[in-house]
Amino acid sequence: MSQPAIRLEDVSFAYEKEKVLEDISLTVDRGEFLGIIGPNGSGKSTLVKLILHLLKPQKGKIEVFGESIEFLKDRSVIGYVSQKANTFQRGFPATVREVVASGLYGKLGLFRWMRKQDWEKVDQAIEQVGLTSLAHRNMGKLSGGQQQRAFIARALVSDPQLLILDEPTVGVDAKSQEQLYELLTHLHQQKQLTLLLVTHDIYSILSVVDRMACLNKRLLFYGTIDEFAKHDQEILSQLFGEGHGTLSITLSKGQKQLV
Amino acid sequence: MLREIAEMLQFEFMQRALIAGVIVGFICPLIGIFLVVRRLSLIAEALSHVSLSGVATGLFLQKEWGWLVGIHPVYVGMLFSVIGSLFVEKMRKLYHSYQELALPILLSGGMGIGVVLISAAGGFNADVAGYLFGSIVAVKEEQLTTVAMIGIMVSLFVFVFYKQLFSLSFDEENAILTGIPHRVVNLVFIVMVGLVISSAIQVVGILLVSSLITLPVAVSLQIANSFRQAIIYAIIFAEIAVLIGFFAAYSLNLASGGAIVLVSVLIWLMVVMFKRIRLIFNRKGFRRE
Ligand SMILES: Nc1ncnc2c1ncn2[C@@H]1O[C@H](COP(=O)(O)OP(=O)(O)OP(=O)(O)O)[C@@H](O)[C@H]1O
Ligand SMILES: [Mg+2]
């Protein structure tokens, strides 16, 4: 039972010739909340797709809940909100409820229809993200932040043990962002959900995550936030280049929160 | 009016035509909705042209070498349409981010082969016109059976695979992730598209078939809120178009395929205008408040 939620061992990946990720090894324990940061193009989304088995590594091993990802039978243990989630077609004729329900379809399999208890789960997930009043609204008629929450509900509806979010706060206002982090913290504590959050938002996540991974093709730092706070200047200048003024400012704000 | 309809339905060929029309009016939008929301509605156009080359091949082989004499050219068209659909799926995978790239190739290729073989088989005659523009009254009993079988197959497929089709249409990546058997469902779906097109050809003709697949969906997308509604409205609009077009064609002596498509266009116009007018009124009310 004490197998980690995610285990990567010497994982390397290249889309074409050039390596995008090199020798990544990390272990995420069950119930842990991990934040992943790194500059644009540093391979964050690629790492996530490797864990989801949407891409296959050229080298290395990936395990989720102790099983090699290729052989993971029950896909519904992982929930995923993609970076591109809200670039779906605005004109698509589907309500929030229909979209959230589709998160169950893989688990239900071929010949089973949605039953009453399945719809109850759907409504619960919608309630969790605070969209109950909009459940029957067309997806295209929601704001960006509301859509994002609908996609989180779709990821939650199959009761995953691991939830992966790739930059869920892009294009979301400060208040919704705060609500989102509150929701994630709540899920993390209540359901012992393992969370993996990719973001550029170093300042806000310092107060919510347990550990931090800093990525730029290689894993430059991986550890608890206390460790991170000790070496933050070093890590961040290594990560984003020397003399990155704005970032050190945002970080000192974050540190204030930590103390 | 009612008497005229009753009189018309006394003819057996008219009954057959009507049944074929109603079946096709059901399955075209049922499949069409998934094509439209996946931005693949051009597939219908391309496959109809591939069917044309199949029909032409059938005509040519009959005329020149006396092959396939017992086989209706529609079936050769069907075969081509299904093979064409498999080709589309192959190309769709090959050009992941330009999924529609295969279609112009198929479209022009099919048209080219069709035209060449038709002229080699004796040029454009009434028979050929029937395939191009549809001759619903020429539907034989055997063809009606085929259309009915395809109708049942397609309806069953959409009914059983509704969840999978919805997921794949809304978000293919997420569908794959949640473990939906995407390869199988996509493959069977595209073959169904091929079958629907070759059966609809007999009602509205090669040149108009894609409009029966996409127009009712275009109307329903204007007003539908949910996916379920979108399907139901599209089917209702298609059936209205088929029935009105069919009776109009009979009593005014028009080409049935053209009449059906024209009614679809009219419905589309009416809905778009209705929506605009309602919007204007709503805004007026808003101002007054
Ligand atoms: N489909 C692809 N084909 C080829 N190269 C790709 C592809 N997707 C990403 N890359 C390359 O891989 C590298 C890592 O991309 P990735 O999307 O993982 O970055 P990221 O850290 O998520 O960036 P961002 O912060 O902008 O989301 C980039 O250099 C990018 O150019
Ligand atoms: Mg990314």
From TrEMBL, chain A:
Source domain of life: Bacteria
Protein's UniProt name: Zinc transport system ATP-binding protein
InterPro entries linked to this entry: AAA+_ATPase, ABC_transporter-like_ATP-bd, ABC_transporter-like_CS, Metal_Ion_Import_ABC, P-loop_NTPase
One Pfam family linked to the record: ABC_tran
One Gene Ontology term of the molecular function aspect: ATP hydrolysis activity
Family: Belongs to the ABC transporter superfamily.
PROSITE patterns: ABC_TRANSPORTER_1, ABC_TRANSPORTER_2
TM stretches of this protein: none
Record's keyword terms, sorted: ATP-binding, Nucleotide-binding, Transport
Span of domain ABC transporter: 6-241
Protein source organism: Thermoflavimicrobium dichotomicum
UniProtKB/TrEMBL annotation, chain B:
Record bears the keyword Protease: no
A Gene Ontology BP annotation from the UniProt entry: transmembrane transport
GO cellular component: ATP-binding cassette (ABC) transporter complex
Pfam families: ABC-3
Membrane topology value: Multi-pass membrane protein
Assigned keywords, A-Z: Membrane, Transmembrane, Transmembrane helix, Transport
Protein name: Zinc transport system permease protein
